[in-house]
Amino acid sequence: GENVEQHPSTLSVQEGDSAVIKCTYSDSASNYFPWYKQELGKRPQLIIDIRSNVGEKKDQRIAVTLNKTAKHFSLHITETQPEDSAVYFCAASKANQGGKLIFGQGTELSVKP
Amino acid sequence: GAVVSQHPSWVICKSGTSVKIECRSLDFQATTMFWYRQFPKQSLMLMATSNEGSKATYEQGVEKDKFLINHASLTLSTLTVTSAHPEDSSFYICSATWSGEKLFFGSGTQLSVL
């Protein structure tokens, strides 16, 4: 089955710096890659997603890149702010699975003012 | 946007009792709902996939007689933790989808078994 590896497990940056979180997946049939942000004790919130027919997608300070050949995708956050501090999860799924997501291990991002 | 409601948000129960958690899609009909378990500072572990009117599909290692899932309608799925024990204490969270792609999560239930 699918396996998603996420790195780093923790990331600390200064406010205003960029943060990059990387994930690799094992199943070449996976075609949908969302990123979720989860604050302590709260539900995961979808922040950006990308499909396998696209190499890059951007939404204001957040971008995601996908390399299908290498089977990895990355989350980029620019101009980080303290409110970006949270745990970020990548995930992967494939068509005809009804939305079944396999999650990475999570990255705890801390943005220091 | 799509809203998924989950209740209760927290529950404390005695060992040996059963606890039911509800997951409702408020403004859409969910073709599929998923149940996850999350330990502190860990990832979401998929427990089972729930489709309306059919038996849930459980992930390997998840006891179906321990974690009963009922998906009575396109807007409601329930998870019952039967004969709960302290090791069942965890954060349980559901998600729902109508597209078979984007998932929307409930707010989670913190279960503490004494």
Cα separation of the termini of chain B:
37 Å
> What would the principal axes of the Cα set say about the shape of chain A?
globular
- Series of H and E elements of chain B: EEEEEEEEEEE
Order of helices and strands of chain A: EEEEEEEEEEE
**Share of β-strand residues of chain A:** over 45%
By DSSP (H or I, 4+ residues per run), the number of helices of chain A equals 0
State the helicity of chain B in percent bands. Answer: under 10%
**Count of separate DSSP helical elements of chain B:** 0
Q: Provide the gyration radius of chain B in Å.
A: 13 Å
Number of strands of chain A: 11
Class computed from helices, strands and strand pairing of chain B: mainly beta
Count every beta strand of chain B, where a strand is a DSSP E run of 2 or more residues.
Answer: 11
- Give helix % range of chain A: under 10%
Overall pLDDT score of chain B: 93
Give unreliable regions of chain B as ranges: none
Largest sheet of chain B: 7 strands, mixed
Computed over alpha carbons, the radius of gyration of chain A is 13 Å
The class by helix and strand makeup of chain A works out as mainly beta
